[in-house]
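Whiteboard transcription, Tuesday session. T.W. wrote the structure tokens on the left side:
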């Protein structure tokens, strides 16, 4: 009997491994299927949804910063065309451009420009027409506060050939604050990917059933004790190592006379504010410094210097 115990233990471990693998495979398949269903939901008019790639460029001090992301969606009635220009805000405190007399701080007459407008107060059609009548080559509308970076294809019939896209509130407010500080921001809008809805109103019951099934499955899995995977343990270890590395980086409190507090000196590239006396800064191993309150969350998320991409775990 004792001779068979190792074999029984081995078979038990093998069975446990196969069961865990099957559960992981089923969970992964259901998750992918549910995401596919969500992405496939039709909009209100059943039209295809086109994403928008935004190539954003601006200058801070002597540094030119660029970022490219699929951060917007084209409006339902927008031409699917590339458009580029300097980003311009409506003049005054109200940023929704609902007043027909709204003016924009336009650049040189020969320069292409894009209007950045807040959602709300009037229809999308009205906002786009106001900007177009002032000469905008394109319109970027950012969503309500509290919606994060959620977007949807706008309905704006009768706006002609003006390119119109929606971006999330977080990205819109980031651009808004940059421009308010006098930063020259340019954006190139390009056509992204096409999402073709395949569901229709007659089979929405299928989606409801599948959504309920997925929810029940994940509720069942959540109630079962699970052993963290090797990848999860690895991520936890890396996060702990990053926290430890951050704690070992040099801290310094700026004071009057330091070269960093010179009004003509560099600013923090994370928040774009200038350094002031009594600011606490953290100095990375690559000798770049930033506000402690800015760089600590950045390092937890990215692990690298925002300027030179130096990895704090590899130094």
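and on the right, the sequence the group agreed on:
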């Amino acid at each position: 009997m004792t001779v068979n115990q190792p074999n029984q233990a081995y078979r038990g471990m093998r069975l446990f491994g196969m069961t865990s693998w099957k559960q992981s495979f089923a969970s992964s398949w259901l998750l992918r299927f549910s995401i596919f269903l969500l992405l496939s939901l039709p909009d209100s008019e059943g039209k295809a949804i086109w994403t928008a790639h935004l190539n954003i460029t601006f200058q801070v001090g002597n540094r030119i910063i660029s970022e490219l992301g699929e951060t917007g969606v084209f409006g339902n009635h927008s031409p699917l065309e590339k458009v580029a220009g300097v980003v311009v805000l409506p003049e005054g405190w109200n940023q929704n451009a609902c007043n027909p007399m709204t003016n924009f701080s336009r650049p040189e007459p020969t320069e292409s420009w894009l209007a950045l407008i807040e959602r709300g107060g009037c229809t999308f059609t009205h906002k786009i027409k106001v900007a177009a009548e002032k000469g905008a080559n394109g319109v970027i509308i950012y969503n309500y506060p509290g919606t994060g970076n959620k977007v949807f294809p706008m309905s704006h019939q009768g706006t002609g050939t003006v390119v119109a896209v929606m971006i999330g509130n977080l990205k819109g407010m980031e651009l808004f604050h940059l421009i308010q500080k006098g930063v020259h921001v340019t954006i190139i809008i390009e056509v992204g990917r096409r999402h073709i809805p395949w569901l229709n109103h007659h089979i929405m019951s299928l989606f409801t059933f599948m959504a309920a099934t997925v929810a029940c499955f994940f509720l069942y899995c959540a109630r079962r004790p699970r052993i963290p995977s090797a990848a999860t343990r690895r991520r936890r270890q890396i996060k702990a190592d990053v926290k430890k590395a951050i704690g070992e980086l040099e801290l310094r409190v700026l004071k009057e006379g330091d070269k960093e507090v010179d009004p003509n000196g560099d600013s923090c590239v994370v928040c774009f504010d200038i350094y002031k006396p009594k600011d606490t800064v953290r100095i990375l191993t690559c000798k770049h410094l930033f506000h402690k309150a800015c760089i600590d969350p950045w390092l937890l998320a990215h692990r690298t210097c925002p300027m030179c991409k130096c990895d704090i775990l590899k130094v």
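Someone added at the bottom: Residues 230-302 form a domain with the Herpes Virus-1 fold (CATH 3.30.40.10).
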